[in-house]
Amino acid sequence: MSDKKQQKRTGNLKSDALVKKIMSEKIAATEFLEEYLAPNLKAQLDLTTLEVKKESYVEESLRRQLSDLVYLVKTKDKKRDAFVYVLLEAQSKVDHKIAFRLWKYTLLLLERHINDKAKLPLVAPIVLYHGKAKYTAVKSLWQLFEDPDTAKELMSDEHMLIDLESMADDDIKKKQHLGMLEFFLKHIHDRDMIKLWKEFFESFEDMILLDKQNGYIYIKSFLYYTDAKLENDKKEELTKVILTSLPKEDGEDIMYTIADGYIDQGIEKGIAQGIVIGKAEGKAEGKAEGKAEGKAEIAKGMISKNYSPSDISSITGLSIDQITSLCKSD
């Protein structure tokens, strides 16, 4: 065989394949773990129970670079399984993102057990490096962050819990604008939504102006949510609460948002069309005409749902005579 062919053949031999072949043998794997596992972990394990798992957790794009092996070893107390995850790097170049990948593969292992009632098994990542260059990659995920200490503090301990259920309403109300959101979310599962709205307006009367300055971001969102949950016979009552709790013009404008949901309730397609026309951008004259048509369509839809003429007038701005005329036309 020529030297060129010999070199080509040798170049095609992958050292990671060699490592994987050897470390797939129970004897070799047991010896390896006996030598390198941390003493405190090894003391908990019965290495005679070692099983070589054949599943691959490495993405297809990385399989030419990395060799992954998974060993399942039972603990001495026989009460739980501990996974020892061995990720072997066969490249001569140092992989500076290996700490990240190890976490990723560890989570993939754990994902298989996340639905079990038992606690998750242990995972011990190990890297076997045999490159020529000095190994300079960080061995901790946290060292990949700009601020390792803060990253570790934020991500390796308990996650932050904001438990609204355990907060007193009085404490929530002290949080001003944010308190509006927390209060509504805390009581969002209450059966009586009308009562919730009344208490909401009473509790945050001073914050309404602040929410107005922010475009009523909370109240409008709460209204969308509530309208989708309320029975139709409760919508009129909610309308009264909104109109009596907000400045007249603001209340009427916000009630146009509730009309957006009418099409979902099956209250005539013309209502939605009217709203779209009323809101559409265009020339000033076109806007005025669209808004007028929109009011009429909204009024018709409310008439079909037996809203009182006074409520229809408050919401749409139409006169009682105009509403009466619409009733006759239907």
What's this, in brief?
Helix content is 54%, strand content 9%. With 330 residues, the chain is α+β, with helices and mostly antiparallel strands. Helix 15 runs antiparallel to helix 16.
Describe the fold and architecture.
The N and C termini lie far apart (98 Å). Helix content is 54%, strand content 9%. The radius of gyration is 34 Å and the shape is elongated. Helix 15 (284-304) runs antiparallel to helix 16. It folds into 2 domains: 3-155, no CATH class; 164-329, no CATH class. With 330 residues, the chain is α+β, with helices and mostly antiparallel strands.
Order of helices and strands: HHHHEEEHEHHHHHHHHHHHH
Radius of gyration over all CA atoms, rounded: 34 Å
Give the uncertain stretches in residue-range form: 1-13, 261-288
What is the strand tally? 4
Structural class of the secondary elements? Answer: alpha+beta
Q: What share of residues are in beta strands?
A: 5-15%
Structure annotation, total helices: 17
